[in-house]
């Protein structure tokens, strides 16, 4: 498989380029309860919950709210047609809503999530903050979908492990105009070096996006079709998120071991449970080569442009959650904070995760149990 190996080494080259291009980031951010700009967030409640999560005494009058109910997330395929349709409409609805000043250069709440995810993105990728940060990010996005756009169905995850032998045939890529995420389309596009195929089918056909520049939702499944002509994803890409890969992740001892497996650091021929669908889809979902040779490289973190981002990350979170259900794992957290130094072991459960105005910045410990307020969900 020389083609695949060269793609693997290309993606390693990208990582090396990123390492070279970035200096250190100071650990930034603190609880921003004094600046409540997002109306669907309970800032005083979060200030209390954040204090409690790291063992600080509550101020007089501070109170941690209780969950009204614990919502169960379910696999995309188990949603009814009507729930899927509502979900798609609510996702698109975010493009019509104001962003509460989060992303001043971009006009809407959909973009605000992309903007936050591109802001200092190396602070919460490829390191210990990755899973807690993305758990909170997916949760707050589900809050926006519910409270701003009226989605009341279950929050879905996409169990792509069930599709590992042939990702291309996954029902999520359906071209149904109401419930399909669409496939990669037929029209090649190149907007200032952002290359791939315009998504021209499904619920997000011809979707216009704004970050880093106005363009259509773009994907390119060709790499995997070309490199794996017999569609034996079970040999190549699919092995990175097969049932065996999930079993291996769930047997991780420390949190940092789980993180390494999820992000594919532990095995040079595996892309990791998290990375594989990104690399499969390329385009907006950020595979190897996206933004390469453009003015925005190495700023490649526009992945939430693609609506699949949320159900994909909810599955990564489901694997994290499953691991946390093992005896003694619920509150484990350790690993590296500076993303460029895998040998660092300074990450702490008291670290404050930065969300750049998308609600308050929570401590890691507030993200570790999904059933606690404010997240109030389970799998
Ligand atoms: C990004 O990180 C830099 C370096 O730590 C910091 O100065 C800057 O304020 C951060 N950006 C935002 C929007 O917080
Ligand atoms: C995180 O929360 C758990 C459960 O309340 C607690 O046992 C642990 O001490 C907390 N960790 C920190 C660093 O405060
Ligand atoms: C995901 O799919 C695999 C393969 O069908 C199955 O074994 C596993 O239980 C599923 N996991 C979840 C969380 O849905
Ligand atoms: C895309 O267009 C840019 C010019 O904007 C050009 O430099 C680049 O080679 C093109 N890429 C492809 C794959 O055609
Ligand atoms: C799609 O990806 C393949 C493999 O990387 C590449 O050769 C091809 O030029 C890409 N097509 C478009 C339209 O960007
Ligand atoms: C990105 O471009 C560089 C040259 O600027 C090239 O060496 C590298 O292989 C490219 N990576 C990918 C994944 O296309």
TrEMBL record:
Residues 306-317 form the Tyrosinase copper-binding domain. Residues 1-26 form the signal peptide. GO terms for molecular function: metal ion binding; monooxygenase activity. Keywords: Copper, Metal-binding, Monooxygenase, Oxidoreductase, Signal. Gene3D superfamilies: Di-copper center containing domain from catechol oxidase. Transmembrane segments: none annotated. This is Related to monophenol monooxygenase. It comes from Serendipita indica (strain DSM 11827) (Root endophyte fungus).
